[in-house]
Specification:
Length: 162
């Protein structure tokens, strides 16, 4: 059994090393005279070329989503009674902990996602969860979204007066 494991590791190592690229600083001038070498160089320098390692790349790590600053500030303002757990302005996500709204009896937590720089309803998504596991009505979630949108409009109007 141990011999089979070692043999399998050797085969996997050989297969993975065959997937590597030759990234030497300068090409060998003696090899540039054959057509097959030129074709191989063009394939290696092709910007649309993919390798097995592309499976492990998760895209551009520096990708930033532009969020509307009025929606962002309004979300924090309207949901100020909830403790904030995570805030990521680069992806537009606000995650809160459980809290009870003023005058309410049930505690909620919210996840807000702002996906667009436009001050529009399509840019805002609010997900509510209750602590007791009871479903949160769509009307409640819609009321929170409406409150955030109204506050964002107020902030924009106040900003334009300056």
């Amino acid at each position: 059994m141990r011999l089979q494991t070692i043999f399998g590791l050797i085969i996997m190592t050989a297969a993975m090393s065959a997937c590597g690229q030759n990234q030497s600083a300068a090409p060998n001038p003696a090899l540039l005279y054959t057509d097959s070498t030129r074709t191989e160089e063009r394939e290696l320098n092709d910007p649309e070329r993919t390798t097995i390692w592309d499976v492990f790349n998760r895209g551009n790590a520096e990708q930033i989503v532009n969020v509307n600053r009025y929606l962002w500030a309004a979300s924090l303002d309207v949901l100020n009674f909830l403790p904030i757990q995570e805030v990521d302005p680069f992806t537009g996500v606000i995650v809160t902990g459980y809290g009870t709204p003023p005058g309410g009896g049930r505690s909620y937590r919210a996840t807000v996602h702002i996906s667009d720089p436009a001050l529009a309803a399509r840019s805002l998504s609010v997900a509510l969860q209750s602590s007791g596991g009871a479903p949160v009505s769509a009307a409640t979630a819609r009321a929170v979204e409406d409150a955030i949108l109204n506050r964002a409009r107020q902030l924009r109007i106040a900003d334009n007066k300056l």
